[in-house]
Design brief:
The structure is a homotetramer. By secondary structure, the first copy, chain A, is an alpha+beta fold. Chain A is built from 6 helices and 3 strands; from the N terminus they run αβααααββα. Chain A has one domain: Winged helix-like DNA-binding domain superfamily/Winged helix DNA-binding domain (Arc Repressor Mutant, subunit A, Orthogonal Bundle), CATH 1.10.10. In chain A, strands 2-3 form a two-stranded antiparallel ribbon. The termini of chain A are far apart. Chains in contact: A-B, A-C, A-D, B-C, B-D, C-D. Chains A and B meet through helix 1, strand 1, helix 2, helix 3 and helix 6 of A and helix 1, strand 1, helix 2, helix 3 and helix 6 of B.
Chain lengths: 127, 127, 127, 127
């Protein structure tokens, strides 16, 4: 091993997830496979790869590309990710995944949980 | 909602995982449930909670505390996490999880993959 | 170099700052030296070192411990950091820095900037 | 304020720096202004903006665009950042900053410090 391995490692970088995603995905009705699939999509987006194929995603996971395709379709239907298509600055059409719907669900959930907590605190104060 | 929700969200913070863990956990013979369990332990460590119980961990996941206990024991046996015990600065005994073994496996794997790649590049050059 | 260097590097970890801090510190009336000093405090807190001395902080910077002490005092007076004292679980008194006031200022600033933008968008719509 | 502010904040994201950069920049002969300028470039790269102008960078800092231009030139001359030019997939020429030279210096420095430490430990053992 030499310096170049370390440089490569450094450049692979990190993936960053709100701690709340890790504590709330189950409440959001996601299981562990679905969570990890979403993290894979996030990691591809971070690297600038905006529309990875089911095979590319499945290659990092315990599932095959057929199951991956099926899971992606379901996550889209259930409103966790969405596909955006458009035309880039060079006039070329593109498609890309967006996980903004996931963040919206997570924020909704977080705000709701916060309100519930407040109500509970209020009740305690009253009694 | 108000400013305080946003402040709380900010303070919950992020969890950061080397992208290589996400791309290599399957090669490391971990499945998605095991990966997420390790991320949960990592998140607890980050928050300064160094020895979470199986129930505390399972509360965030799709598994119950019995299954969580079983999975933790297996991850220890298989050498992904370890329990460290010691005495703190106030003379009190403590136990805490360490996921250093996971990082070691990941680095080993990464270095091995890098060497293999170099060999392949060399072969191409020779032909 | 060997694997252990890489493991150490990995364990040193990363420091994470909201991108908005980097784009808004100047609006928050901080200069670069003050920003970096706050990042140093943040890094010490992350490592669990909650009340670093001016010398420890200055050792990583272009300033000496006297200047560091002076800057810290000013940042406290101007409301960017605060010192919290309390008694820990073992009955020992402690003091620690908190940079929560910085996050509050940043969020205030962010929300204010967002409102201003909305108003500008509204004006455009009206004309 | 409403949910959309929080979503925007979340999407602005974080910037992540190796903690070692924060503890070693001074040894690398960078001052605080230079460090923050490099972080600004890093944040622009993260956002996919690969060749920000001195005015765009200076807008976030306590310096004006002339001083920013001067500092950038010096950082290039002194080997901390470099400009890469090439042709993209659509046949359009591009220029972009790379801070790979900074990471190389940092790793060199880190490895050197590690070796020095080992030597010191060895000396202690011998005496």
């Amino acid at each position: 091993m030499n310096k170049s391995v370390m440089l490569k490692w450094l450049q692979e970088g990190n993936i960053h997830i709100p701690t709340t995603l890790l504590t709330h995905y189950h409440t959001l009705k996601l299981n562990e496979k679905e969570l990890v699939l979403l993290l894979q999509v996030l990691a591809f987006l971070d690297k600038g790869k905006e529309f990875p194929t089911p095979s590319e995603i499945a290659a990092n996971m315990s599932i095959d590309s057929v199951e991956c395709h099926e899971m992606l379709s379901q996550l889209i239907r259930r409103g966790y990710i969405t596909i955006i298509d458009g035309v880039n600055e060079f006039g070329i059409r593109f498609e890309r995944y967006s996980i903004e719907p996931l963040w919206e669900k997570l924020i909704d959930q977080y705000i709701a949980a916060d309100k519930k907590e407040e109500v509970e605190v209020d009740h305690k104060k009253e009694t």
